Structures are given as C-alpha cells and as structure tokens.
Amino acid sequence: MPSAPGGPRLLLRRLREIMAEPVGAQDRLDKIVTQIAANMVAEVCSVYVMRGDGVLELFATEGLNREAVHLTVMRSGEGLVGLIASRAEPLALSDAQSHPAFSYKPETGEEIYHAFLGVPLLRAGNTLGVLVVQNRTYRVYTEEEVEALQTTAMVVAEMLATGELQALAPVETGIALRRPVYQKGVALADGVGLGHVVLHEPRVVVKNLIAENIEAELKRLDAAIGEVRLSIDELIERGDVAHHGEHREVLETFRMFAHDQGWLRRMREAVTSGLTAEAAVERVQSDNRARMLRQTDPYLRERLHDLDDLANRLLHRLVGRDFVTERENLPENAILVARSMGPAALLDYDRSRLRGLVLEEGGPTSHIAIVARALGIPAVGEVSNATSLTEPGDAIIVDGAAGEVQIRPNPDVEAAYAEKARLRARRQEQYLKLRDVPSVTKDGVEVTLQLNAGLVVDLPHLAETGAAGVGLFRTELQFMIAERMPSASEQQALYSTVFAEAGDRPVTFRTLDIGGDKILPYMQSVEEENPALGWRAIRIGLDRPGLLRAQIRALLKAAAGRPLKIMFPMVATCDEFERAKLLVEREKAHLANHGHPLPSDLKLGVMLEVPSLLFQLKEICESADFISLGTNDLMQFLFASDRENRRVADRFDPLSAPMLRALNMVAEHAEASGCVATVCGEVGGRPLEAMALIGLGFRSLSMSPASIGPVKAMLLEMNVAEVSALIREELKTAGGGQTLRPKLAHFAETHGIPV
Predict the structure, then answer these.
(1) Which of 114, 200, 305, 367 is catalytic?
(2) Which of 121, 453, 582, 617 could serve as 669's disulfide partner, Cβ 3.0–4.6 Å?
(3) DSSP character for 596?
(4) pLDDT digits (tens, 9 = 90+) for 525-538
C-alpha cells in the first residue's frame, strides 16, 4: 500500500487545512477519512471513537457503508478494533478475517476487504478511539506505513481532544475523553474538596503539530536532548539533586534513559514522518503512557514513569517553559494533581485558593500528608495514573476521608458531594461550639486533648479548637522544607515563634526524627536495606552529636524563662535516653556558664515506638519525666507490618488484643511510677480508638486539629469506668490476635457515644 505522492507530510498539511475549515464536526471528520484514504491509497478509512460508556462507535468512514456510521458499535476488546483499543497498540494483518479476534459486522459491508491496519487514537496514554485503513488485496503493511498512520492518528486525537465531536455522541455517554472517572486511593487528609484540576507539573499542550522543515525540527530535537542530558549531568555532579526533589539514583536512571537509542530513534522517526519536534516527543510519550497504564509489573511501571518524567523535561525545553506550574496564577477552587510532591512545594501555593490535593504517590504518614492536614487541605494519595487521567481545568472532587476521587463527575454525583461538604461544614460548626467545653467524661474524668504540629501554620488551630497545648511538635519539618541546613539561629527563631503562638499552653518538642523515609534533601543519604529499622532519629543524633547539640541549644535558648518539654524519638534502650539526657545537661551548663537564661522548668521524655522499651518499662518510667506513645511506628514494629505497604498495612488492627495489651502495660507502669503517659500517634485522633485508650487509663491524647472536635464529642458522652471494665473483661478471653473493634463499636452505639 504505497503512499500517494508527497507522503505523510503532504497529508498532515492537508489535514491542518481541513481542521481550519468552517464546517461542522461530522463534515470535518468525513473529509479527514477521505483524505487519509486517498493519501495512503487505501480503499477504506474509518474512525471509531470511544464513548464514555467504554463502547467504540463508528463515527466516520470512507469505503464502508455510510449507513453504518453511528450504528456500528463494539465493546473494548471486541473484534480487531476493540483489541487495538484494549491493548493501545497498532495491529497490521494481511488477512483480517482469519484472525481469531475478527468480529463481522454485516451492516458495514467489510467482508470484501482483507488487509487491515489499525492504530489507537491516544492522548496522554488514554485511548480515545481507533483509526483503521483497509484494502481488498492480501498484503503486508510496512513499518513506514504503520508509522505514517500513527502520526496521522495523533492529529485526529487532537481533534477529539477539542471536544468538537462531543455533540455527535449519545447524550447519556459522551466521548471517552470527557467521561466521568472514579478512582480509589488512600485517605491522607480529611475533608471534601470540589474544584478544578491544576497539574503541579503541567503537561505541555503541543499546538504546532506539523513540521514545515524536517531538518530544522531534527536539529531542535537533538539540541533539546543535549540540553536535558547536560542539565542532568550538572545536577548529579553538583550534588544538588535533592533541591529539585529527586534522589541521585532517580537522576542516574534519567541519564540512562536520556541516552537510550530506542527512545531517541522513535522520536526521530516521528519527526521524519512530518511532526514537529515537540509533537514527536508527545507522540512517543503517549505510546509509553499507554503501556504504563496497562502495566502490572511495579518495576516496569516505575521505569515507564521515569521515561514519562524525562519526556516532560524534554517538552518543556522545546517550548521554553519552566518545569513548574505558575503558582501566582492559581485559579479559584484549585485542586492540585501530581505524581509526587514535597512539603515545601505545597507550601508555595496560595492556601486560600486550594481546595484539595491528589497524588499518585504518598501514604498517610508521608510528610506531604502531614502538611496537607496542617493546612486543612483534603488529600488523597496512591491514586493510579492521576496525572494521565486528568486534564487542566477538569472538574474534580476529592474525598479525603474516604480516599476517593471523582474526575469529571456527573451532575448528580457532584450534587451529592456538595451536600456532603455542607453537612461536614455544619458538623464542624457543632464541634466549634465544643471548643470551650471542658474535656471531661460523664463520670468526671478529665482528659487533656492536644495538637500534633510541625509548622507555624499549625499553631492558629490551638485557639480554633480549644486544644490544651501541642503534644507533639515535629521539628524535622523545618529541616525538610528548607533548601539547606537551618542554622542554630534559624532554629531558635522558629521555636521562639512556636512559644509565642502557644502562649501559656505547653508545647512538647520532638528532636529531629530524620532518616528512614525522612531524608533531608541536602544531606547525603545512606543506602540501607531496611531504612525504617536503620540509622534514624536518636541514632543519628547520638552518632552526630553536633547536630543534636545545636538543636538542644536552640530549644533551651528559645524557652528562656518558660517551661520546656523535649522528647527523643526511636529510643530502643534506656542507655540511649541516658546519653541524650547527659547531652542536654551539658548544654544547660554551657548556657548557664555564659549567662543565658534557662527554662523555668525542663522535662525530658521518650517517644515509645520501639517494642524493646515494652520490656524496659520500669526503668524508662523511672528515668523519664514522661513517655509518649508513637502508635504508628509501635504498631508497625510490633506486627512487623510496613505501614506504607497497602498489602499488609490494614491487616492488623490497633484495637486487637495484642496491641491493647501492649498499651495496657504502658499505662499501668506509668501510673505505678508516677510517669506521665500520653499518646501522640494517629490512633489517638480516631474517636473509637480514643475511647479505648481512655478506657485503658491514658489521660492525655495529641492529634491532628481536625480530630479534636470528634474526639471531644465522643469523650463527653462516655463513662470511663464502663469502657474500662468492658476492655479488661474482653482482654481476659481474647486470643489469636482477636480484635475488640466490633464489641467496642457495639458498646458505643448502644450507649449513644458518637464514634
């Protein structure tokens, strides 16, 4: 099937002219298929469009019976056209009717055609339809012909992307590009957000598809590739990779792909077929995205993601745009969609315009999730292919409580979520009325409710929620959002601000909890097989005492004349805590010798999150002024269950007998020794779990700002003695890892306790 004189370049120019003509959508599509058939010397050219219900519909044809247009339909996976749509790959056959997937549609009259070539209509890796040419003869299509039809398909896909064909589709379904999409992810930050998509790293919209000068476009492509390679080399050699939010190994992978000959060859072939350099990159990128969307192997998906990121860099080079969105031009009701983000990047956006956050990566304990909760932004993580499924400006809904995302929702779905948002707002108003109500249970037990914080933006929540103080201030967030190590004076300034904002409320500062998944961008990372169990937190502080001493000195100076509470994370032995205490005493002595005012009262505590401390409770309670349970890590270490691994993270329940027995041990030893025991982990902010903790004897809980209201509403209605009796009775007989959740939930329901 040789192409007509002029080949694909002439066809592309003719298609550009047709796209500019003032005609209706159907007439334009009819002219396009006629032009493609003539140029490729094919007897048939047909366009099948994917509808919103997943059905492929014949929208235009040259050569088949015209009566079949908008009549012939097939499911994705049905027939040769459906096979191409499901696989997102070209299919060339010399005898289509002998293929096992062939599906005969009598109304089309295609039984006289044997040779078949079909290619998917792709945009951002999503299949929008299928473009087909057919011939009567039994013939083999060449690679050049397949390439030419793929290039042509890109132009047709752009027509689909404009929405011009929407009017030709059934009203109840529309076309696939605009179809509603539901995605289930992981809840990161509570709340419901309705708004419109803003891509954190916006895709380049290629408007100039057809090349005027092939040689010039090849030179542009080669020059951009060279610039990307050079920029990656410079980042690696400079050691400044983390400033750009990437680790060295990621850039090493980028460098490898930037020299991949197969990838480069495909882009050059696309240019040779008549596309501009940026259109060629987009076409190859779309093919790779289509493979990525259908890939189940996690390693291959990651590699395809890397290639996608590299293509984005190349596109931005070609069009001369920065690889970031324009933060100052953020629209109203913006919902950010990103593959991943660092906490500093989120803080750069105008909070007043943000309504939600959707991430392809990032779990509930990631620092971006912590920052989102601090800002009160509904957020959902681990949403597969979110950046490929959305277009800038798309309507989108984020349900941060359920971990659900609705892309381009139907009006009834949008109305339901709008009502949910209104109900939540009314509930928040009810919680606000409880702000000044004392946190005392029905049987007169006082429970202290405090906030978890880590940024200055968290601190206004103290007044808003009526919290008694800050039970956990994560000092590492200042280090993680900075581009360099904060100086001692910068640390002191932050801690002074925290004290000023807190007023007379107490603040418990946790020393640097870095390492593991919390890598400081300007520090060299250490390769470890299991970083969660490796060199992190107090272990780094004791091995690098200069780092810990500088922080302790900044805290002591900032607290001059007022009470100070410091706790150390990831303590596994009493000896580690004693060494940390000694370091604090030395810093106190140093400041006193130099005439600096000291805190009016200093209390040192331990974050209990390593199970080994459960067997040193007597000693640690005698040595520490207080202990605070970090239930997130304690639970993952107790059950050897990675909290970031979705396959096992929900397998073990914090209300199971083993976990409750461990918590009970801590409460009993703390009470016996007069050591204050608090809870600052996530479970303390869930009403049912908080009810159990209070029943076990804990009288101080620290949680996210959004949890204060629901937990207070719960405790105001509970009787501690009754809950305590229920738990202790159940723990006597519970075995085999049995969970007490059903019994506790039933108790709450029958006693009118809101959980």
Answers:
(1) 367
(2) 617
(3) P
(4) 667 777 778 888 89
